[in-house]
C-alpha cells in the first residue's frame, strides 16, 4: 500500500491558512502554492538515493554525498503547473514534462489531450503534481499514462488531499506514494474538497 504523508509542519500550516482564505488574491495565492510545493518537495525527496563523492574544500578533501537519481517534474494541466516553480527551485536539474487530460462526456473515461515528457522519462523518478487530489480520477489516469510509457517510479505531490482521491490512488497504484500539505475529510456534490480552498486552477491563474 502506498504511503500518504500529510505535513504537520508549522510553516506549511500557516501557508495553508492563507491559501484557504477566500480573500487571498491570485498573485499571493500563486506565490504561496509555489512555496508550499517547495516545502512538500523537501519532504518527498528525503529518501532519494545518494552517491559518495570527494570534494576539495579550501582546507582539505571532504567526503560528501550527492543525489544519485535522474528526476522529472510532471504537472497535470492546468493547475499542476502552479507547483512547478517550487519544485524546480529544489531540483534544478530535473526535466519537466506535461500531461493534460479531459473526461469524455459520454464514456466519462479520461482522455489524454496533451503529453510531452522527457525522452528518458522511464529512467527518472517522476514527481507528478496536481494541487487538488479530490476524486482522484485524473491523477489515477495520469499515473496510468506515465506507467504506459515505462515510468516505474512515481511520487504524487498535492496541496490538498481528500479521502476519495487517496483511496483511489492507493487501490489502483499502490506503488505511488502521496505527499499532501493537508487532508480534508470530504467532497461536496460538485466534487470540490470541503472546506478546501476553491478552484485551485482559477485561483492560480486568476480566471475566476
Ligand atoms: N479541483 C479544485 O480546484 N478544487 C477542488 O476542491 C477539487 C478539485
From TrEMBL:
<dbReference type="GO" id="GO:0004845">
    <property type="term" value="F:uracil phosphoribosyltransferase activity"/>
</dbReference>
<dbReference type="GO" id="GO:0006223">
    <property type="term" value="P:uracil salvage"/>
</dbReference>
<feature type="binding site">
    <location>
        <position position="78"/>
    </location>
    <ligand>
        <name>5-phospho-alpha-D-ribose 1-diphosphate</name>
    </ligand>
</feature>
<feature type="domain" description="Phosphoribosyltransferase">
    <location>
        <begin position="6"/>
        <end position="207"/>
    </location>
</feature>
<dbReference type="InterPro" id="IPR000836">
    <property type="entry name" value="PRTase_dom"/>
</dbReference>
<keyword id="KW-0808">Transferase</keyword>
<dbReference type="Pfam" id="PF14681">
    <property type="entry name" value="UPRTase"/>
</dbReference>
<dbReference type="GO" id="GO:0000287">
    <property type="term" value="F:magnesium ion binding"/>
</dbReference>
<comment type="similarity">
    <text>Belongs to the UPRTase family.</text>
</comment>
<comment type="function">
    <text>Catalyzes the conversion of uracil and 5-phospho-alpha-D-ribose 1-diphosphate (PRPP) to UMP and diphosphate.</text>
</comment>
<protein>
    <recommendedName>
        <fullName>Uracil phosphoribosyltransferase</fullName>
        <ecNumber>2.4.2.9</ecNumber>
    </recommendedName>
</protein>
<dbReference type="GO" id="GO:0005737">
    <property type="term" value="C:cytoplasm"/>
</dbReference>
<feature type="binding site">
    <location>
        <position position="199"/>
    </location>
    <ligand>
        <name>5-phospho-alpha-D-ribose 1-diphosphate</name>
    </ligand>
</feature>
<feature type="binding site">
    <location>
        <position position="193"/>
    </location>
    <ligand>
        <name>uracil</name>
    </ligand>
</feature>
<keyword id="KW-0460">Magnesium</keyword>
<keyword id="KW-0328">Glycosyltransferase</keyword>
<comment type="pathway">
    <text>Pyrimidine metabolism; UMP biosynthesis via salvage pathway; UMP from uracil: step 1/1.</text>
</comment>
<keyword id="KW-0342">GTP-binding</keyword>
<keyword id="KW-0547">Nucleotide-binding</keyword>
<keyword id="KW-0021">Allosteric enzyme</keyword>
<dbReference type="InterPro" id="IPR050054">
    <property type="entry name" value="UPRTase/APRTase"/>
</dbReference>
<feature type="binding site">
    <location>
        <begin position="130"/>
        <end position="138"/>
    </location>
    <ligand>
        <name>5-phospho-alpha-D-ribose 1-diphosphate</name>
    </ligand>
</feature>
<dbReference type="InterPro" id="IPR029057">
    <property type="entry name" value="PRTase-like"/>
</dbReference>
<feature type="binding site">
    <location>
        <begin position="198"/>
        <end position="200"/>
    </location>
    <ligand>
        <name>uracil</name>
    </ligand>
</feature>
<dbReference type="InterPro" id="IPR034332">
    <property type="entry name" value="Upp_B"/>
</dbReference>
<feature type="binding site">
    <location>
        <position position="103"/>
    </location>
    <ligand>
        <name>5-phospho-alpha-D-ribose 1-diphosphate</name>
    </ligand>
</feature>
<dbReference type="InterPro" id="IPR005765">
    <property type="entry name" value="UPRT"/>
</dbReference>
<dbReference type="GO" id="GO:0005525">
    <property type="term" value="F:GTP binding"/>
</dbReference>
<dbReference type="GO" id="GO:0044206">
    <property type="term" value="P:UMP salvage"/>
</dbReference>
Amino acid at each position: 500500500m502506498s504511503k500518504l504523508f500529510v505535513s504537520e509542519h508549522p510553516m506549511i500550516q500557516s501557508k495553508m491558512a492563507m491559501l484557504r482564505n477566500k480573500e487571498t488574491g491570485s498573485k499571493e495565492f500563486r506565490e504561496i502554492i509555489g512555496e508550499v510545493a517547495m516545502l512538500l518537495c523537501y519532504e518527498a525527496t528525503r529518501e532519494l538515493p545518494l552517491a559518495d563523492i570527494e570534494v576539495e574544500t579550501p582546507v582539505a578533501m571532504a567526503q560528501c554525498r550527492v543525489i544519485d537519481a535522474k528526476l522529472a517534474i510532471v504537472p497535470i494541466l492546468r493547475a499542476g503547473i502552479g507547483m512547478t516553480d517550487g519544485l524546480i527551485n529544489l531540483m534544478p536539474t530535473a526535466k519537466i514534462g506535461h500531461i493534460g487530460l479531459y473526461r469524455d462526456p459520454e464514456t466519462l473515461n479520461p482522455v489524454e489531450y496533451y503529453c510531452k515528457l522527457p525522452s528518458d522519462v522511464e529512467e527518472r523518478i517522476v514527481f507528478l503534481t496536481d494541487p487538488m487530489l479530490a476524486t482522484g480520477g485524473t491523477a489515477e489516469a495520469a499515473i496510468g499514462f506515465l506507467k504506459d510509457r515505462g515510468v516505474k517510479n512515481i511520487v504524487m505531490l498535492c496541496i490538498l488531499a481528500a479521502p476519495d482521491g487517496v483511496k483511489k490512488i492507493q487501490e489502483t497504484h499502490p506503488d505511488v506514494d502521496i505527499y499532501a500539505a493537508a487532508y480534508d475529510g470530504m467532497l461536496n456534490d460538485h466534487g470540490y474538497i470541503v472546506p478546501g480552498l476553491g478552484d485551485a486552477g482559477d485561483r492560480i491563474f486568476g480566471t475566476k
